[in-house]
Specification:
alpha/beta; Rossmann fold; six-stranded mixed sheet; four-stranded antiparallel sheet
Length: 253
């Protein structure tokens, strides 16, 4: 199947510390791909490279058939409109209601009036089951609700890809599973490609189509949830076992 997003032979170091060492990964359109691995292995680095928030030292990155890693900053705007990103923190403005927060990119990128943008923002909030909270302020809501509002804001530009960086970290189990369902619905109903960085075991094995396990700067294993869970690879099993008992910080992963 043709790759929609692809990293080829990517290397990335920070000072003298190598993080990615010839990493290859291809994601198909409409797929939910989880990128997993211990802290510092390069998961967040990988997704930031796609939108130019970081630059690779070597290798090539492709999006929808075109190479994007070599593009200058001025040429990245069209890519960033098609690739949304939901950060670990919701990054909402506390002085604005949820509807006003979600309306911001509609006014900036679509040049909508405030009235039209707010109407559309409420529609996006309904998409993430937050319509009843459109006039509330972020500080009045739970972390899970703020995260859903952040997803609604990302969806205003109708992205082809959404990158999620630890979307369920710090959430209670009920809120975390709501985020999982939203991600799965994006792929199933809207055919949005979802690339998710996560340590959350129920998320990883609950909604992924495939899982890429990063180890020592490369994709060590790439498999369906069932195949990865059944893998005889001791490195994979050690990681999965660590997630089931608590965060792993084993040096060398």
């Amino acid at each position: 199947m043709t790759a929609f997003v692809e990293w080829r032979g990517i290397t990335k170091s920070f000072g003298a510390a190598p993080v990615l060492r010839g990493m290859d990964l291809a994601v198909t359109r409409g797929e939910v791909m989880f990128i997993i691995g211990t802290s510092g292995v390069g998961k967040s680095v990988t997704i930031k490279l796609l939108v130019g928030l970081l630059r690779a030292d070597a290798g090539e990155i492709y999006f929808d058939g075109s190479r994007v890693d070599h593009l200058p900053e001025s040429a990245l705007a069209p890519i960033r409109k098609r690739v949304g990103m939901v950060f670990q923190s919701s990054t909402l403005f506390d002085s604005m209601t949820l509807a006003e927060n979600v309306a911001l990119p509609l006014r900036k990128h679509h040049r909508l009036s405030q009235k039209a943008a707010l109407v559309s923002a409420r529609e996006r909030l309904a998409q993430v089951y937050m319509a009843d909270y459109a006039d509330r302020y972020p500080a009045d809501l739970s972390d899970g609700m703020r995260k859903r509002a952040a997803i609604a804001r990302t969806l205003t530009l109708d992205p082809d890809v959404v990158l999620f960086d630890e979307p369920t970290t710090g959430l209670d189990p009920v809120s975390a599973r709501r985020i999982d369902r939203l991600i799965r619905e994006l792929a199933d109903r809207s055919k949005v490609t979802c690339i998710v960085v996560s340590h959350d075991l129920p998320s990883i094995f609950g909604i992924a189509d495939r899982i890429a396990f990063l180890y020592q700067g490369k994709v060590h294993a790439l498999a369906s949830p069932a195949a990865l869970r059944a893998s005889p690879d001791p490195v994979v099993q050690q990681f999965i076992g660590g997630l089931s008992t608590g965060p792993m910080e084993t040096p060398g992963f």
